[in-house]
Amino acid sequence: DAGITQSPRHKVTETGTPVTLRCHQTENHRYMYWYRQDPGHGLRLIHYSYGVKDTDKGEVSDGYSVSRSKTEDFLLTLESATSSQTSVYFCATEGEGNEQFFGPGTRLTVL
Amino acid sequence: GDSVTQMEGPVTLSEEAFLTINCTYTATGYPSLFWYVQYPGEGLQLLLKATKADDKGSNKGFEATYRKETTSFHLEKGSVQVSDSAVYFCALRPGNFNKFYFGSGTKLNVKP
């Protein structure tokens, strides 16, 4: 395991409020990723980071922003949450063997 | 573009049955291929991987062979157990790009 934690693990919020999800890793991996998982869609990439302050968009980035000020932390922010952003969010890092390691997930409900 | 297609589920088997979950891919160059497993309420865990053509990845009785000629990476297990019930994801990582492409997942139910 790559020592990936996510916080919070569960969150319920209301439409229009800002939400920040945190991913923390202890393996000093350079690459980090945020995915969302929805029934029928598998995993979809939101944003990824290839180093401190270096980030790029994935396939479903609209409505999301990210920041990476330290190697170990990768934050995902929903500026104004909508019901369509109700999902399970997974953080991942890429290890030396090019495999991805996943965190336990955050279940977000937007009412 | 690069993509992964895997068989739709759910797949329901009796304990000790043979398992095959099909996965085919589209990619340029020489991708690495992976199988991940997800148990209820958990994140994805790496099950096995193969990094070049004809490589066989194996772990916990599961196997998959990287077939470039058929662009496939089918997951197999000779005798499934109830504890293998989970969702299985096939994934591809292009050789020159740090992004993964995941299949939509196949749910496996194993009955006693």
Contiguous runs where pLDDT drops below 50 for at least 5 residues of chain A: none
- Main sheet overview of chain A: 7 strands, mixed
Distance between the termini of chain A: 34 Å
Beta-strand share of residues of chain B: over 45%
Radius of gyration of chain A: 13 Å
Largest sheet of chain B, if any? 6 strands, mixed
Oligomerization state of this entry?
heterodimer
User: Radius of gyration of chain B, rounded?
Assistant: 13 Å
Strand segment count of chain A: 11
Average pLDDT reading of chain B: 94
Question: How would you concisely characterize the structure shown here?
Answer:
By secondary structure, chain A is an all-beta fold. Helices cover 0% and strands 59% of the residues of chain A. Chain A is globular, with a radius of gyration of 13 Å.
Give a description of the structure.
The complex is a heterodimer of chains A (111) and B (112). The mean pLDDT of chain A is 94. Chain A is mostly beta strands. Chain A has strands at residues 4-7, 10-13, 19-25, 32-38, 42-51, 54-57, 64-70, 73-78, 87-94, 100-102, 106-110. Chain B has 112 residues and is mainly β. Chain B is 0% helix and 50% strand. Chain B has no helices and twelve strands. In chain B, strands 2, 5, 6, 10, 11 and 12 form a six-stranded mixed sheet that branches. In chain B, a hairpin with a 2-residue loop joins strand 7 (56-59) and strand 8 (62-65). The chains are: A mainly beta (111), B mainly beta (112). At the A-B interface, strand 5, strand 9 and strand 10 of A face strand 5, strand 6 and strand 10 of B.
